[in-house]
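Sample intake — Pyruvate phosphate dikinase AMP/ATP-binding domain-containing protein
Collected from: Micropruina glycogenica
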Amino acid sequence: MTRASTGVPGLDAIIDDLRVGDNVVWQVDSEADFAAVAEPFVGRALAEGRRVLYLSFGQRPPLLDDLAGVEVHTLDPFAGFEPFAIAVHDLLAEVGRLGFYVIDPLSDLHRAWRSDLMVANFFRATCPFLFELDTIAYFPLLRNRHSYATVAAIRETTQVLLDLHRIDDALYVQPLKVWQRHSPTMFFPHLLSGGRAMSITSSAATTQLFASLARRIDQPEVWQSVVDEAWAALDGSASEQEAARETLMEVLVGARGRMAELCRANLRLVDLLAVASRLIGTGRIGGKSLGMLVARAILEQDGAESFAGRLEPHDSFFIGSDVFVTFLVSNGWWSHWTAHKQGGDSVRGEPGAAELLHRLLPGGEFPRTLREDFLQLLEHFGQAPIIVRSSSLLEDDFGNAFAGKYASVFCANQGTPAQRLAAFEDAVRIVYASAVGPEALQYRADRGLLDLDEQMAILVQRVSGDLHGGLFFPLAAGVANSSSLYVWDPSLPDAGMARLVTGLGTRAVDRTGRDNARIVSLADPSSSPGGDQGRWTQRRVDVLDLPSDVARTVPIAEARAVVPRADWALVARPDAAAARRLRELGRPGREVPEVIDFAGLLDGAGVARLLREVLASLAAAYQHPVDIEFTVNRDPDGVAVLNLVQCRPLQTRGVGGSIGVPERAPERCVLASRGNFMGGNVRLPIDQVVWVRPDAYLALGEPDRYAVARRIGEINRSLEGSAILIGPGRWGTSMPSLGVPTHFTELNGFVGLFETTYSEGDFRPELSYGSHFFQELVESGIFYAAVFDDRSEVQFRPELILDLPNQRQRRDPDDALAAVIHVANTPELMLHADVAEQRVVLQW
């Protein structure tokens, strides 16, 4: 079968019948008019033995009076666009070829999604699949309910578009598009009467007929109508304002979850309207945006006096999650997206869909209307540097930080408007592509999130900082946590911790090669776990080079040369230990190197106290420990001000009270130490220890060191029982000279992770508190300890493990890496840690 009937013989003659694959859109004035043409179509199909289905959106009785023989399927658009579109797709796939469909009015979807853009996306995502299945589907499009842009998208996608008018109680049909058919009278108006369709070709008759019909006025996007009504509600009653706030909450935030509850408790109608005024597209704004907005609202409302004049305002823009869907649909990739959600990804099921999307997304094209919106965004920021940040629906939520899994891209934002627009679009594409990156997919798989609606919204922020010479960067940037999960001095109260760098905050969230961030206990900013601060200070700075229009890394001396002396004094000071050594060596005249310790900011400018108060206020409102990203600059009056750019719940393991640690037995004790661990109170039996021997690792070339990291990943995937991983220097570093360059997914099966010193190779643990690596350890509940075996309070006896049989060497004696990676079975070995006592013991 290749042809079918409309049920109206005259109409069949005009359009040369329906063809299998046709999507038939009827523009109508009322549901009753649509029923008048749908009923003969359904009646004829049933008479011919066709399978006919009515797809209801659950908001009205079916439009057809007689549904005998018609299967009615109710689908819920309030579940969200993606679950709804997938449910429709699944139903169509189940029915298979040659199904006949009648569908509820598309305007009914407005109530669920508050977006005409998404109505167009639904049609454009669904109709190609209907076409592939050789179906015929009738869609009613209620006139003057949709914007020109939506009607244009539907016209472009559908095979048949028919205009239906009721004039003087008579029905007239005028074909507007009939794919691959044509006749001399096809596109004239036709009177439908008694199964006949009479062409009206006379200009006089046509003019007389349609003169009374007013030309339609373009309808505003449904979302704009919602916003206009919310602005009007500001002058209305309290109940009207609350109703408007709830509608905006539903669209921008979502209705469920702990973050939605926080937004409902802290965001006012005017706050949501401010977001709406800077929203590109429609849809939700995502977790990262919500965290930033809620945190600022909490501080402005609860601590107005404490924080007055100390917090930078923001003028961020938001790209709604619907734009991500639009990008996929307009480039023809929606089927790839649904395939990766339904099993066609690299984590489970048929591989290919996610990898293909990851390659395709950076080359996608944006619709013209979106490019115009992007240009207006750039006009707002002028040539100020901006950062394009992921803000997915699940990101920065309770339990799911997605730290470092999705992309953020700095734009120096220089050059001509066309060049700036091209760079901005590239940045958005990079963020979109990261939604299906391997690490993000693995993260979602590990947490059972693959099936959830995870669209990508975007937060566009002005980069906080100032121009120094041609270099743009903040005086300080960092991350801070309200709860000190890693304590090196048991006498310090828990007032939170911070990880600080000068320059862009990228060096605060990454494990940055041979560089070091400043770790600060906010209870005592002078305290540091690093020992010799001069040795472990920051030496390079991430900046935006505006003349070159790029982000780059410069030596600390280059940054110092362009920063005003008064500002630099807040960041750095002469290294007292180095000065003392120079005097002892009889070279007092030599220039004393500096240490980047932020003492002037933390103490003199009161930033440590400010951070303590900010963290305490946010943790109280969240009723949960929090993690923030921030920058510090000086305002025109010289006051140090905080710019809060991100806030999220910090997923912690409860530390509880003291559990007690057994006294160490030297002959059975592998490790005994005070402090320098993270992971709460633990009492864990350890079935296996995987140990990278530092001497053997040091002897390897760089390629073999990467091979060690990959082999650790293989072991990680095959672990059985409870295992810990021990190695020299930093796990997860990007530089094999500093440790083993594993990805987190290559060690996430271990219950404990130990970093050890090895002076011959300059391997040394790095407290990466606040980094993305740290976030992953905390979320995964992996115990962490830094073993400084050169300290008097540390007992460390590797031979108790390394003298045990190496299971890898037994399994594969010819494996060259078996001499580097020692795998020992350790029945009855126990790991004990007590936060109150700040003691950790690993012994039999």
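Post-analysis note: The mean pLDDT is 88.
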